Amino acid sequence: MTRALRWALVAVAVLVVAVVAVGAVVLWPVFFPDEPDLRVPGGSTPGSVVAASEYGDLTVPMKLVQAKGASVTYMSTDPDGKPIRVTGTSFVPGGTPPQGGWPVVALAHGTTGIDEACAPSRSPELGGLLTIAQSLVGAGYAVAVPDYQGLGAPGVHPYLDSVTAGRDVLDAIRATRTVFGSVSPRWAGYGSSQGGGAIWAANEESASYAPDLRPLGVVAAAPAADVVGLVDKSLAGTLTSDQAPSLQLFIEAAARSHPDIVRDDYRSARAARLWDTLSSCSGAAAAQRPAAIAALRPGDIMPRSTEATTRLTDLLESYALPKRTASAPMLVLFGDADTFIDPAWTRDAVRRACALGDTIESSEQPGKGHADVDISSALPWLRDRFAGTPAPTNCVR
User: Fold this and answer.
1) CB 254 within 8 A of CB 266
2) Per residue in 45-100, pLDDT tens?
3) What is the DSSP letter of 11?
4) Strands 102-108 and 83-92: what pairing?
5) Which one has a higher pLDDT value, 272 or 56?
6) Which helix (H) or strand (E) segment is 185 a member of?
7) Which of 128, 131, 317, 327 could form an SS bridge with 206, CB 3.0 to 4.6 Å?
C-alpha cells in the first residue's frame, strides 16, 4: 500500500467518524428527547391546569428543534358560566425562549364531531392541525390546540357556540403558559370553519374574559361566524349536501344541552332512522356516515312547526358573531363557492364587525370552497402582528 493510499484511507476514516459524530449530535434529540418539566398546580379558575402528561408522539421535525409537547386538562367556562374540564394539546420549541417567553399561537380546529371521542387530541393529526402546529413550533412559537368542551373530556359539546369555544381557546393559552412556564402572554390565533368562529370569538372575548393575555391578531378561514341562514334554507329545501349534516349535528348537540328540545320536531322519519349514524365520529357508524348523508333529502332536516323554527333561530342567533368589538385585528379568508357557509353570511358578519370598529382585512377568494381556501398569507400576517407592524384593513367605514 502506497503512502498516498494510506493517507487517503485515514482521511476517509476521519471523515466517517466526523459524519457519525455530527449525526449522533443531530439525531440524539430525535431518539432521546428530554422529558418536559410540566407544571400542574391544579385549581378551578379558568385556565387552571388540573392534569398534564408528556405528548408521546412528537413528529421528527418537532424533535429536531427539541420541541416539547403536553396533553393537558384545564378548566374553562361552560355556556351557563360554570367551571368545566377541557382537554387540549400544547407545544413549545426547544432551546432558550426569547425575553418575555415564547409567543403563542392558538389553533382552533374545525368540525370533528360532537362526541367525547371526536377530540383532535385523540387523533394522530390533531384534527388536521398537526402540520400547521409543526410549522409554527419550528418558527419559534408556542402552540395551544384546545379540543373544546365535550370533546376529549366528559360533558356536552355546544356545537357552533363560538363564544364558549372562544373561551376554551383563551383558557388553552393560559394552560399552555402554566404547564410550560416559558410562554408569553402575547398571543395570536388561527382557526377554520367551526374554528374560524371560535378564534373570532376568542378575539372578541379576550379583553373581558382574559385580561391577563395580550391578543395581537387572529386569522379566521371560512369562519362559522353566523349560520342563522341555515334555518330559512332548511324550510325552503335549499340546504346543500354539506349544510344538511351540519344542521343535524347542531340539532343533536342542542338537544343534548337543552332537554326541552325534541329531536322529532326537526327531522323526518328517514332522518330519524339515520340519526345515530349522522351523529357519529368513530367506530363502524362513522364509516357509514357518508352513505347516511347521501341518503338525506330536502326537508329531512328542518323545523316541523313555527315554535320549533323560532327555537332553532333564537339559539343560532345567540351563537352568532360579531357580538362586540374585537380586541385585536383580524384577517378573514373565505371562498365565494363555499357550500358549508354561504359567502353572503360571512360578508355580512364582516360588515357588521367593521361597523363595530374592528380592524379587518377580508379576502373573498374566487372559485374557492370551504376546505380549499388559500391560507398561505396567514403565517406572514401573524408574523407581522408579532413584529408590531400595523394591520391592514379594507373595512368601509
Assistant:
1) no
2) 999 999 999 998 888 989 998 999 999 999 999 999 999 999 999 999 999 999 99
3) H
4) unpaired
5) 272
6) strand 183-192
7) 327
Contacts of 86 by beta carbon, 8 Å cutoff, 6+ apart: 73, 74, 75, 76, 146, 147, 148, 149, 152, 153, 168, 171, 172
- Axis-axis angle for helices 243-257, 269-278 (nearest 10): 80
CB-based contact 112:129 (threshold 8 Å): no
304 burial level (CB within 10 Å; 0-12, 13-18, 19+): middle
DSSP annotation of 372 reads -
CATH class of the 49-226+325-387 domain in this structure:
alpha beta
- Alpha-carbon gap, residue 143 to 146, rounded angstroms: 10
- Locate 65 and state its grid cell: 428543534
Q: Give the three cell numbers for residue 206.
A: 379576550
Residue 74's H or E segment, with its range, is strand 68-77
> Could you tell me the pLDDT band of residue 26, with boundaries at 50, 70 and 90?
very low
3-state secondary structure of 86: strand
Across the chain, what does the average pLDDT equal? Answer: 92
Q: Is residue 99 exposed (0-12), middle (13-18) or buried (19+ Cβ within 10 Å)?
A: exposed
Least confident of 5-19, 37-51, 372-386: 5-19
| Contact status, residue 205 vs residue 163, Cβ threshold 8 Å | yes
DSSP H helix total and E strand total for the chain? 12, 9
